[in-house]
Design brief:
The structure is a homotetramer of 364-residue chains. The first copy, chain A, has 364 residues and is an alpha+beta fold. Helix content of chain A is 16%, strand content 29%. Chain A has helices at residues 59-62, 156-171, 191-194, 265-269, 302-319, 324-334; strands at residues 2-5, 20-21, 32-34, 39-44, 72-78, 86-96, 100-105, 120-126, 130-132, 141-142, 146-152, 205-206, 218-222, 230-236, 253-262, 275-277, 288-294, 336-341, 349-355. A 6-stranded mixed sheet of chain A has the order 1-4-15-6-13-16, with no helix packed on it. In chain A, strands 2, 3, 5, 11, 12 and 14 form a 6-stranded mixed sheet that branches. Chain A has a 4-stranded antiparallel sheet with strand order 7-8-9-10, with helices on one face. Chain A starts with a strand and ends in a 9-residue tail after the last strand. Chains A and B meet through helix 2, strand 16, strand 17, helix 5 and strand 18 of A and helix 2, strand 16, strand 17, helix 5 and strand 18 of B. Strand 17 (288-294) of chain A pairs antiparallel with strand 16 of chain B.
Amino acid sequence: MVVKVSVSPNKRCADQEDVCHNRWHPDIKPAVEISPDDEIVLETLDALDGQIRNTPDTSDIANIDAGPVHPLTGPIYVKGAEPGDLLVVRILDAGPLGSFGYTFVTKGFGFLRDVFDKPYKVRWELGRHYASSPDIPGVRIPAAPFPGVIGVAPSREQVREWRSREAGIASKGGLVLLPDPRGAVPSREPIASEGLRTLPPRENGGNLDVRNLAPGSEILFPVFVRGALLSVGDMHYAQGDGEVSVTAIEMGGVIRLSVSLIKDGARKYGLKRPLYRPSPLAEAYKDYICIAGLNLDSAEDATSAARDGLLNMIEFLERMGYDRYQAYILFSVAGFLRLSQVVDVPTYTVSACIPREVFTRISI
Amino acid sequence: MVVKVSVSPNKRCADQEDVCHNRWHPDIKPAVEISPDDEIVLETLDALDGQIRNTPDTSDIANIDAGPVHPLTGPIYVKGAEPGDLLVVRILDAGPLGSFGYTFVTKGFGFLRDVFDKPYKVRWELGRHYASSPDIPGVRIPAAPFPGVIGVAPSREQVREWRSREAGIASKGGLVLLPDPRGAVPSREPIASEGLRTLPPRENGGNLDVRNLAPGSEILFPVFVRGALLSVGDMHYAQGDGEVSVTAIEMGGVIRLSVSLIKDGARKYGLKRPLYRPSPLAEAYKDYICIAGLNLDSAEDATSAARDGLLNMIEFLERMGYDRYQAYILFSVAGFLRLSQVVDVPTYTVSACIPREVFTRISI
Amino acid sequence: MVVKVSVSPNKRCADQEDVCHNRWHPDIKPAVEISPDDEIVLETLDALDGQIRNTPDTSDIANIDAGPVHPLTGPIYVKGAEPGDLLVVRILDAGPLGSFGYTFVTKGFGFLRDVFDKPYKVRWELGRHYASSPDIPGVRIPAAPFPGVIGVAPSREQVREWRSREAGIASKGGLVLLPDPRGAVPSREPIASEGLRTLPPRENGGNLDVRNLAPGSEILFPVFVRGALLSVGDMHYAQGDGEVSVTAIEMGGVIRLSVSLIKDGARKYGLKRPLYRPSPLAEAYKDYICIAGLNLDSAEDATSAARDGLLNMIEFLERMGYDRYQAYILFSVAGFLRLSQVVDVPTYTVSACIPREVFTRISI
Amino acid sequence: MVVKVSVSPNKRCADQEDVCHNRWHPDIKPAVEISPDDEIVLETLDALDGQIRNTPDTSDIANIDAGPVHPLTGPIYVKGAEPGDLLVVRILDAGPLGSFGYTFVTKGFGFLRDVFDKPYKVRWELGRHYASSPDIPGVRIPAAPFPGVIGVAPSREQVREWRSREAGIASKGGLVLLPDPRGAVPSREPIASEGLRTLPPRENGGNLDVRNLAPGSEILFPVFVRGALLSVGDMHYAQGDGEVSVTAIEMGGVIRLSVSLIKDGARKYGLKRPLYRPSPLAEAYKDYICIAGLNLDSAEDATSAARDGLLNMIEFLERMGYDRYQAYILFSVAGFLRLSQVVDVPTYTVSACIPREVFTRISI
C-alpha cells in the first residue's frame, strides 16, 4: 500500500500540527500509521519553514527566527516496532516541491562563522537533474536529493538525558540550542518546553545531513519507542560534505520511503548509531581539484585541518574568479571533505575537494 | 629521457646516503638532477627502513626505533625550478618492490592509541591487483599504490620557523617529534640536528598520506629552494582515509613520475598548500557500509566525531566476526572518513565507511 | 536568453503544426529562431503521438497507426548556421511531462519480432529518480532521460538520395518505412509525400536512440541547411542498449538545450556522423550479470551474436521468475549490449548484461 | 591450498606438453588436480607462443604460423566436477610475466581486414598500472588484465558436433580454422587431428575475449566432462571491445583463480553459455568520445553498423594526428563498441567510443 502525507507548502508548520512538528519528543501524536513494507510518500516544508523568499533581498536572512527551524513531517507510527528493534528505511525517491531552492550564509552560524558573517543568499532554479542560479553564473549542481533530517523519536528518558548532556556542553561555552518553547510545534506543553531542538544529530538520527542518503540508499535506526515514530524534513536538492555555510540547496520536498523491521536488531548487532548504505546518486562526480588542509598550529585537530583546507580552497576559487561568499556557498553545496590522515602527529591532513563537473564555463 | 634512481632494498638508508635521506633540509645533496619533462623512476625503502620482518612475531614492532623513520629517495634537483614556482608532479605509475607488505599497531601511535596499545602485525602478500593476508582471512584489498611522503625541500628560514612552530605545540603538550640526530640520514651536522622530522605534513607536502595520489594523479607543490629538491618515500600499496592505525599497507616501492614547472605559479595562484587532482584508481570501490559518527559530549569537534564513527564501525566489524585489532587495521587500509556536516552545533557528523568489496567471504 | 517551445500534451501533432512535425524535410517552417548560446526549453509529445493509454488493455498496441510516429518539436532555426558547420548541442536537463510512461511489444517490430509477436504493454510510474511499474513488480529503473530522436534537417538533395538508398534496401527485402503521406505532419505537399520517415537514424542524426545522450552530454551534428533546423522528440525516461523491444520507457518530455557553432567544422574535422560525449547519468549502474552471446551457426555476424546473448539472458531471467515478455521489456529499458570481440572467426562474442541494481526483491 | 602451475616462458608450448596444450579435447591429460576452494596460480605463454619479437621489425608478423596459436595452461582437473554442474571461476588477480607486450595487424585477420592488410606492430612497456609504447607516443593504457581464453573441455560428442557445425560454416564460405594437426599440442593422435582450434569461442567458453574478465570478476561455466578440465591462456594486459585488430595487448601472464561448484547447476539454471559478473577494473574509464555508427546501405546489420562506427572513429583519430594503423590499434586496445539500438529498421546504431583518459598529450 502507498500511504501519502501531504503538507500545504504555503502554510507554516504551526498551522498544520496534525502532520508537522519541529521538536523531538515521544509524545507527539503520529500523523499516520503504516505497516512494514508499505510505501510512504511524504511532503516536507523547507528547513526554515517558509522564512526565505525567492528574491535577491537578504533582509529575510538577517532576521531569521530560529524557533521554527526544521519542520518535520510525521511522526510515522510503524506497526510492530518496539524498543530494541532496528528500523530499516529505504529511500526510494526524492525531489523538490516546486522549483525554488536557496542556500545562505547567516551571522552566528556556519563552519567559518568568524570569517563569513554577512547575510548572503543564493537562489536556485531546481531542474530535473541540475540546479542553476542567477547568483552564481557558470555553475550547475547535479541533483542528489535527500532528507537532512531523518530520525526516530527518543524515549522520555533519552529526552531528559540528552537535554542534560547538551546543557553541560553549553555550560562549557559550547554553542547549543537548548529546548525553547518559542516557535515550537506542537505548541502544547510539556512538549514545547521539553522537546529537543532539531539542530544537532543524535543517537536517533535527526539532522545527520549526510549527503549520501539520496534515492537508492538505506538507513538502519535503533528503535527507542513503540511505533518507532519516524520523522523526516529539511530536504536538500544537493549538499556538499560539511554543509559548511550551514545550508545546502534547501527546498520543500517530496520523498518516497519504504520501511521494514529487524526484530531485536539493535541488541543483536549492538548498533548505537545510524548505519547506512550510500546512494549511488550521491557519487556522480568523477573529477576533482583538492587542497590538502593541515592543522599547522595545533595538535591532532581535525576541525582545524578541515578549516585550513576549506579556507585555502575558497582562496583558490577566488583566484578563479568567484567572490568569497560564492566560493563558500559553492563548497557548501558541492564540496568534499575527507580525513586523509589523522595520525601524523601533530598535524592531520583533511582534503578539501571541489568537483570540476560543476563548472560550465571556466576550466579549473 | 628516463632517469632511474635505485636503492638497495637490503641495505639501510644510512648505508646509501647518496640516494636516501630521512630528514627535511635544504642542504641535503641532490641524488640526481633532471629537466622538466624527463621521466623519473624511483625506488624507495619501506617507511620503517627495514625494521619489520615478514614473520608473525611482533617483537620488531614492540621495539621500533623511530629515528630512521621515512627513508626518502632523493632529493631530485629540477633544473630551472626557483622559489615562487609551482612544481607539477604527475604520478605515472607505482607498485611494490617485491611482494611483502605490512600494517601494524604500536604503542603510543595511531588515532585510537588509548584503546589500541598492544603491538599487532598484519603481513600482506602483495599481488598485482589485490593484496591478501594470512592474518585477516576473507578480505582482499585492491591496489591503489601511492607515496605517503612526497614533498619539496623547505628553505633554511622555513626549517627554523617550522621547528619553532612545532616546539610551541610540544610545549603545550602536543605529541611532536622534534629534530633529533639519532638515526638521522644524512648523519652529518648541522643537518642531522636541524633537519625536520618527516612525520607531520607541512606546507612543502611531505607525509600527506593522501590515498588519492595513486597513478593517474597530479600534484602541485610551491617551490621554496632552487631546484625544488623533490623527495619521495613511504610508499603504500593501499591506505584508508585516516590511516588510523598509523600504518597503511607499507612496502618498499617503485614509482614513475614526470615533472613540469609553472614559473612564478605559487605567487600567481597564491597557493600555500599542495593542490592535487585525485587518481582514478583510488576510487575503485562502489558499495559501502557507513556509520554516522557523532561528537555527543563535546562542541564542534571533528576529531571526536571521527573517533566516534570509527569506534562504532570497529564494534560493528567485531559483530561480523573480526577481532578488534583486525577491524582497526582493516579500516586503516580500506576505510573512508568523510565530514558529512560540520555545522549542526554542537554535534558534527563524520561518516566512517568500509567498502563491501574487501570482503570475500561474509556478506555485510 | 531562454527560449521556450511548448506543446499541448492533449492534442495530436497534426493539431499543432506550428511547433510539431513528424517527417524530415528542409522546407518545414521553423517553430522558433535562436542565437548560439541561447538556452532552449522544448516540450515534446510521446513517440506514438498519444496513441497509447495508461490502462492495462492492449488494444491500443494491437492497432498502432505508424503514420504519426515520432512527433518532433521544432525545427529550431539557429542563426548563423550554414552547411559545413558543426552544430554543438549540449543537453542541460531533461525529464517527463507528467508521470506516465510506457514500454511495449508489438507485432512486426523489435529485435526479436519473430519470437515476440503478441501485443504487450508495461505502464510506468515516472518518479523523480526512479520509475516503477505495476506490470513488472520488484524492479525500479533509474532515470536517465534523453531524446531518442535528435537531428538536423537534410538538404533537398539528401532527401532524394536517402529515399533512393532506402528504396534500394527495401527492394532487396529489407524492412523499411518509405515516405508516406498518411499521418504526415505537416500534411501539405510536397513535404508529406517527400519527407523522410523518422524511424531510421541517418547522417543527420535523428532516431539515434543512444541512451548516453542524457543530461550532461554533448552532441556534434554536421549542418546541411542554412539555420541547421534542429528537431527533437521521442523522449525516453530510460533505455537499454539496443532498445530491443522497439520501445524504451516512452514519455512526453521536457528538454533544456544550449547550442553553439563550430564554423566550417564538418569540413575541418571531416565529420560524417554525429559525434558525442556521453552523459554521466547514463552510466549509474555498477554491478551486472552478463551472458556471452555467440553466433555459433553463422560466420562473423554481430547481429546473430547479439540475438544469442539476448535470448539466453531472457531465458535466464525467466528462471529468476519473470515471464518472457517482462524479461524482454526489462532488457529493453535497462540492458547492455557490448561487442566483446568481432574477430575470432567465425564466431563473435556479444555480452548481454542486466544491471543488478534494477532488482529490488530478488537477488540474481 | 595454493596450487601453482608454471611454464617456461622461453620454451614453446610443444616443449612443455605436461602443462601446455593448444587444442580443445577431453582426452588431454590434466596438468594438475585441485579441490574446490583451492587457489590456483597459473602462468601462461603469450597467444602467439613466442613468435613475436620485441623489435620494430615486422617480419615476424608477416610470417606468423597459425598452428601453435593459443598455448593454454592446463587442463586443471577439478575434483568432484561432473557434467551438468556449473563451475564457478573467480579471477583473483592477474598480470604480466615480464614487461613486454605487443599488438599487431596481420593480413587476413581482423575486423577491418579488407582495409588494414599490412603487417604492423606496436610494442608495449607494461608498467604496474599503465602501459606505454614507443610506437604510439602520447597514450597510456590502464591495466585491466584478463585471460582472452578461458574454458572447460568439451565432451567427445561435442568435439564431433562442433567440428561438423564449423565445417558447415566453412563450406558456405565462412572464414574458419578447422582442426589441423600442424602445430597441435599435444601432437599425439587422435587429439592433434581431432582437437578443436582455439580461435572461436563456443559453449565451453574458450576465446571469449571479454575484457570484463579482469581481477574481481566471476564466471560460470557449464561442465561437460568429469573434472571440468579448465584451461586458461591468451592473457591480455588490456583490450578494447571488439579487439578489432585481432590482438589486444598480448603478453605472457600470471593469473590467480579460485573455483567452486554448483552441483547440477547447469541443468537447474538452464545455462547454455558462460555467464559472468564483470570486474570493477575493466570499467575505470570515465570520459569518452563516441561516434554513432550506422549501417546505411544494408538492413538490420549490427556488423555493418559497428564497422561504420569504427571506420569513422579511425578517420576522426587520423584528424587528431594519429596514423590510421595507430588509430586502429588504439581502438583495439581501448575502444568501446555498444549496440545503442538494434530496432530502428533498417538502420542500427553502434556507438564506437574511445576513452579520453588514454591520451596524455592532446586533448580530443
